[in-house]
Description:
2 domains; 30% helix; disordered C terminus; 8-stranded mixed beta sheet; 19% strand; two-stranded antiparallel ribbon
Amino acid sequence: xAKMVVMAGWDDVPHLTEESKEEMLAGTxxxxxxxxSKGIPSLGSGxxxxxxxxxxxxxxxxxxxxxxxxxxxxxxxxxxxVVFGAYDADQDIAYIYDGYKRGQAEPEVHASAIRxxxxxxxxxxxxxxxxxxxxxxxxxxxxLQLYRKEGLHLVPADNAKEAGIAEVYGRLATxxxxxxxxxxxxxxxxxxxxxxGLGRIVKENDHYMDAIRYYVKTGLKIAKPIRPDIVSGVxxxxxx
Length: 240
């Protein structure tokens, strides 16, 4: 028998007035507001990052050339995920402006997709799951070395999981980590990223979340700005 799930929010209930919605929203805990008002599934207290998505979403804006660029990468056969970030060191705010995720593809395919996202004339530094240094493909070569041969400038990430999660959470909670609103795949993971009854991270569909952790813990330290002298001698406008 076929099954389907329909999400319905307060806007789908015709008898609710705007005043009623505002009153109910005011009495709803922040981490439950989207689930109750819009019908978006929420994990409640089990969420790793119980911060409303609207609080961390960022609209498209101009990105100055002095913002430092880098990316975080989580590798795996079932899914390889990459988040691209721009860091405003003056304000200590990191912006995730692009993402890439694909499963069951060779390193050459992933590397090509990453290179296509480089700004003109710039090779971005990246940080990758440190396990890539020991994982091997069928030919026995280490993944990290395979990606480096494909022209990616990668360093192993700091993989202190709980410390990394705490750092990401701190930035999200204080507005120092923003994610572009159009990156819906990342928000799909964010929404379901949770702990089990014993407080352990549920390792399901969390590749973007790991990539973000690597980006925050290590990517910010290696990020480089877009310099006018390496982009046709002119300071370009970049957007995300």
